C-alpha cells in the first residue's frame, strides 16, 4: 500500500470556502478537544473555528486533494487591501463576520445543551483574545493579525506552515501594515516564533482546573515586522 506524501507533489493555496469548515472543525477537535467525547469535541472544534472565522478578514487553505492547513488573517480597521490584491488567490477569500458570528452562537448553544455551561466557549481562546485586544488598545495602529494557523498532523515538518504563514503575511503587507501579531500558548510550539525572530510583547496566565488543583496555563502575544 502506498501513501501520498505532501512533499512529493504540488500543494495549492486557495481561498477558504464554507465547504472547508467540517474538515478544519474536525482537525481542531482532534488537536485541542480530544479529552471530550466525540460529539462534544466536534461541537467544541466547530465553536472554536467559527469564532476565529468571525474575527478574521481573510482565509487561506493549503490543499492537496484535501485540505491540509489553514491560515486566517485579521486586518485592523485602518488597513485595506488594494483592489488588485483582492482577486489574488494567494490572498484568500473575504469572510463574512456576521454569518460566522451566528454560526458560532449556535455551536455554543448546542455544546452547552449537551454538557453544560463549561463546555464552551473555550477559556484559553477567550483569554488570548483579551490579551491580544489589550495590546491593540495600547499600540494597535496598522497591525495585521495571524488569527489562526493550523496544520493537519500529516502536513507537519514539510514547510507548509511556513508557506501558509508567508501567504498571510503577504496579505498583511499588501494592506499597508509594517507589523503583525499572533496569539499562542504553552500548549503550542511557541519556540518556533522566537526562532524566526518574533518578539514576545505580552503574556499572562490562566488558572485551569486539574485533577487535584488548579494549574497555571501561560499564553502569549508575539509581534513581527514586515
From TrEMBL:
It comes from the Bacteria. Pfam families: Acetyltransf_1. Residues 11-224 form the N-acetyltransferase domain. Coiled coil: none annotated. Keywords: Acyltransferase, Transferase. One of its GO terms (molecular function) is acyltransferase activity, transferring groups other than amino-acyl groups. SUPFAM superfamilies: Acyl-CoA N-acyltransferases (Nat). InterPro entries: Acyl_CoA_acyltransferase, Bact_Acetyltransf, GNAT_dom. This is GNAT family N-acetyltransferase. It comes from Candidatus Coprovicinus avistercoris. The lineage of its organism: Bacteria, Bacillati, Actinomycetota, Coriobacteriia, Coriobacteriales.
Amino acid at each position: 500500500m502506498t501513501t501520498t506524501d505532501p512533499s512529493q507533489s504540488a500543494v495549492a493555496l486557495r481561498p477558504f470556502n464554507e465547504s472547508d469548515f467540517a474538515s478544519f472543525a474536525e482537525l481542531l477537535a482532534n488537536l485541542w478537544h480530544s479529552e471530550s467525547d466525540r460529539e462534544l469535541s466536534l461541537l467544541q472544534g466547530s465553536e472554536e473555528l467559527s469564532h476565529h472565522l468571525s474575527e478574521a478578514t481573510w482565509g487561506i487553505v493549503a490543499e492537496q486533494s484535501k485540505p491540509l492547513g489553514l491560515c486566517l488573517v485579521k486586518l485592523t480597521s485602518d488597513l485595506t487591501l488594494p483592489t488588485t490584491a483582492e482577486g489574488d488567490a494567494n490572498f484568500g477569500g473575504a469572510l463574512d463576520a456576521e454569518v460566522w458570528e451566528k454560526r458560532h452562537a449556535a455551536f455554543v448553544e448546542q455544546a452547552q445543551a449537551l454538557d453544560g455551561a463549561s463546555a464552551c466557549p473555550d477559556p484559553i481562546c477567550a483569554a488570548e483574545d483579551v490579551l491580544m485586544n489589550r495590546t491593540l488598545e495600547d499600540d494597535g495602529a496598522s497591525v495585521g493579525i495571524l488569527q489562526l494557523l493550523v496544520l493537519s498532523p500529516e502536513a507537519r515538518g514539510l514547510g507548509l506552515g511556513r508557506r501558509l504563514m508567508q501567504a498571510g503575511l503577504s496579505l498583511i503587507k499588501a494592506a499597508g501594515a509594517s507589523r503583525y501579531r499572533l496569539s499562542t500558548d504553552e500548549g503550542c510550539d511557541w519556540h518556533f516564533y522566537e526562532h524566526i525572530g518574533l518578539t514576545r510583547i505580552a503574556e499572562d496566565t490562566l488558572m485551569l482546573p486539574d485533577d487535584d488543583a488548579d494549574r497555571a496555563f501561560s499564553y502569549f502575544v508575539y509581534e513581527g515586522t514586515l
